[in-house]
Specification:
The chain is α/β, with parallel strands linked by helices. Helices cover 34% and strands 20% of the residues. Strands 1, 2, 3, 4, 5, 6, 7, 8, 9, 10, 11 and 12 form a 12-stranded mixed β-sheet that branches. Helix 1 links the parallel strand 3 and strand 4. It is globular, with a radius of gyration of 20 Å. The termini are far apart. The relative contact order is 0.18.
């Protein structure tokens, strides 16, 4: 595979190389710059599949991947605004962000807006909305059995047997954690006393806040926690890799998905290549190729496709998510979360 992978380090937000693959120097035979710096919060499974597809679509492409949480990556892009180092971001760009990142992304959309489901058209003119992330619990089946539990939904997470044994990322910086808070709002009522009481009760059961979005599924598989509040792609990626001690649970009270996008970093060194890559990601053929290649992600195209490691949508209990309300009240919800979290420290 012809790409270089790097990691965004929290706090310092500096590049640390974690391995280089052979690459073609970043130029095609006619001298065109073919080097793409991709900032992404997606899983390794997703990135490997996309990289393989891009290598086929753009022969000679040289991809450097900077991996991190949505909060880390957008903070990094802001800090680099005077001298942008990245070309595009994929993943972590939640449609409920509204115009929060208007200043760091180029206001550009691909020509494929009319090929995706109407519900997922760009909300702001710069997020190209390509995939969905559905809230789910990762449950360690060995530990669940050991504790004599049968975890089906939110109510079960308040069992004292799970005190200190549930983890979730930080909703002030992680898109997956905000996704989970959004689902709690959708299930219990947006901004309702019931929703905040549930969050308070969950924190009272010593909910552990993880430092990254991947920990709530990887640490559950490793046996560090019984339950991780996370998203289906992360869990399904582990199941795809052969992990056999976890199961994916959609809360019986209902689940919902947020739509995520990809965007061109304003002033990036190779924005034209980024636009070509995003156009491929958004095209019906690109969407179907990725969905079927990865097998763990729902995408936004109107075309039919199969996701091998995900259950059919009609087997899941869905609740409506009011994206407009969540966009308008995001700061308020995060502030209330912070207040409740701080009270439990």
């Amino acid at each position: 595979m012809r790409f270089r992978k790097a990691v965004a380090v929290a706090g310092a937000l500096s590049l640390a190389s974690v391995g280089l693959a052979a690459c073609g120097g970043g130029e095609t035979a006619d001298g065109e710059n073919n080097r793409l710096v991709l900032y992404s919060s997606m899983t390794e499974n997703d990135l490997n599949v996309l990289s393989d597809l891009l290598e086929q679509e753009f022969p000679g492409i040289d991809i450097e991947i900077v991996n991190g949480s949505a909060g880390e990556l957008t903070a990094r892009i802001k800090s680099e605004a005077g001298n942008p180092q990245g070309d595009m971001m994929w993943g972590g760009l939640d449609v409920s962000n509204g115009d929060a990142h208007s200043d760091i992304f180029e206001h550009w959309l691909s020509d494929y807006e009319d090929t995706i489901e109407d519900a997922y058209h760009s909300p702001n003119g710069f997020y190209n909305v390509d995939h969905l992330s559905t809230v789910a619990f990762a449950v360690n089946t060995d530990l669940e059995k050991e504790l004599g539990l049968n975890i089906k939904g939110y109510a079960d997470l308040l069992d004292p047997k799970l005190k200190g044994r549930i983890t979730m990322a930080d909703p002030t910086s992680s898109s997956s954690a905000w996704n989970n808070i959004s689902n709690i709002m959708s299930v219990f009522g947006n901004g309702s006393d019931e929703a905040y009481k549930y969050i308070d009760d969950l924190l009272s059961n010593d909910l552990v806040i993880a430092s990254s979005s991947s920990i709530p599924f990887t640490a559950v598989a490793d046996g560090e926690y019984v339950v991780g509040l996370t998203y289906e792609d992360g869990i399904a990626s582990l199941l795809k890799s052969g992990t056999d001690n976890i199961r994916m649970v959609y809360p019986e009270e209902g689940t919902s998905a947020t739509a995520f996008g990809t965007a061109v970093i304003k002033g990036g060194p190779n924005s034209e290549l980024a636009k070509r890559v995003i156009s491929y990601i958004m095209s019906p053929e690109g969407q179907v190729a990725f969905a079927e290649g990865v097998g763990t992600v729902r995408v936004t195209t109107k075309e039919s496709y199969e996701s091998e490691f995900l259950p059919k949508s009609d087997t899941i209990k869905w609740v409506d998510r009011d994206v407009e309300w969540l966009t308008e009240h995001r700061d308020e919800v995060v502030a209330k979360w912070t207040e409740l979290f701080t009270a439990h420290q």
